[in-house]
Amino acid sequence: MTIRSYKDIQPRFGKNCYVDESAVWVGDIHCGDDVSVWPLVAARGDVNIIRIGNRTNIQDGSVIHVTRKSTSTPDGYPTIIGDDVTIGHKCMLHGCTLGNRILVGMGAIIMDGAIVEDDVFVGAGCLVPPNKRLESGYLYVGSPAKQARPLKDSERAFLKQSADNYVTLKQDYIE
To answer: Which residues cross the membrane (predicted)?
Structure first.
């Protein structure tokens, strides 16, 4: 794995994390415990911070970045990801905030200032535009993202199960 500092700040990882050797992590990134980062994931916490919660997995080819501070956005937009989040293959997260127990489908893009509340499915290929808020307990699809329907109980349970599955899988890779 390639870990690089930026302005003497280096990525930090919690306990029992797996990061594939092809991943590239730069700058002010903090990961919780049991995080898994899969092949070709790039994360760059240079002009703002990236924070990733416990038991979150970021799948192959995804990109995580941030937005710098400016006069129009004095704090810029960090990227904050909660606990038990599954980020599907080839997603792009840019200066957004994700709560807990979220599944972001393959190829989804979540842009600056967007907020995804807890317990949400973001459909594959979805585009979440800047500053949009996705309300807890729903499936969102389309480009731009639109609320499709409430989640079923089985889908809500799957959000945690997906994260648990990746905790088990990354443990296999560690061992």
So the answer is: none
pTM of the model: 0.96
Per-residue pLDDT tens digits for 64-99 = 999 999 999 999 999 999 999 999 999 999 999 999
pLDDT tens digits for 152-164? 999 999 999 999 9
Q: Which long-range contacts (CB under 8 A, 24 or more apart) does 77-81 make?
A: 77/48, 77/112, 77/113, 78/48, 78/49, 78/50, 78/51, 79/45, 79/48, 79/49, 79/50, 79/51, 80/50, 80/51, 81/50, 81/51, 81/52, 81/53, 81/56
